[in-house]
Amino acid sequence: MWRLSQRLSLLRGRNYHSGNGCYGHRLAAGSSGVPEAWSSEELDNRAHSANVLRLVTAYRDHGHRYARVNPLHDAESLPSDRPELELSAYRVSPSDTFLTSGILHDPSSAGELRVLDAEPTLQALYCGSMSVETQHIPNEAEREWFVREYESRRLAPLSDDRRQQLA
């Protein structure tokens, strides 16, 4: 009887529904739970480099279609034409440069980057052996947070000690 009453009191104390219907997370009082997505500097940069932003967004939205996630198929079986990811569709040339702030969250290339140098990074992130698709996340700030975390962690170099720990 004591165990049953103890379990019931534990269950009453664990309410996984927060005020906005999310599971497993309880918001702090007075908090919206979602950080601001972009600073004013990042918004200005996004407006200035809108075509590059559209290209990066296309990789985020459509890159998973071309990802090499099936170990039974070789690289030749993937479609060679990728109309959604063509530079010309966004009026971007390989020599164009852009500031990565607010567009691409690569910790190793903070600052100015050429599209030619960013494209292999985008392909590795979204068309490689691991990919994500985030369009199902309805809140834009949450989607941007997820993308920021994925890109910064996926592109961050691992030390030899950390690689040994993971292996």
Please sum up the structure shown.
With 167 residues, the chain is mainly alpha-helical. The protein is 41% helix and 4% strand.
Q: What report would you give on this structure?
A:
- The protein contains six helices and two strands.
- The relative contact order is 0.13.
- By secondary structure, it is mainly alpha-helical.
- Strands 1-2 form a two-stranded antiparallel ribbon.
- Helix 3 runs parallel beside helix 4.
- The longest helix is centred in the last third of the chain and has 16 residues.
- The chain is globular, with a radius of gyration of 21 Å.
Helices and strands, in N-to-C order? HHHEEHHH
Main sheet attributes: strand count, strand direction, barrel closure:
2 strands, antiparallel
* Average of pLDDT: 77
Name the overall outline.
Answer: globular
Low-confidence segments, given as residue ranges, are 13-18
Category by helix and strand content: mainly alpha
β content, as a range? Answer: under 5%
Report the span from N to C terminus.
46 Å
Specify the number of helices: 6
- The rounded Rg comes to 21 Å
Number of strands: 2
Counting copies of identical and different chains, the oligomeric state is: single chain
Helix content: 40-55%
* Major β-sheet strand ordering: 1-2
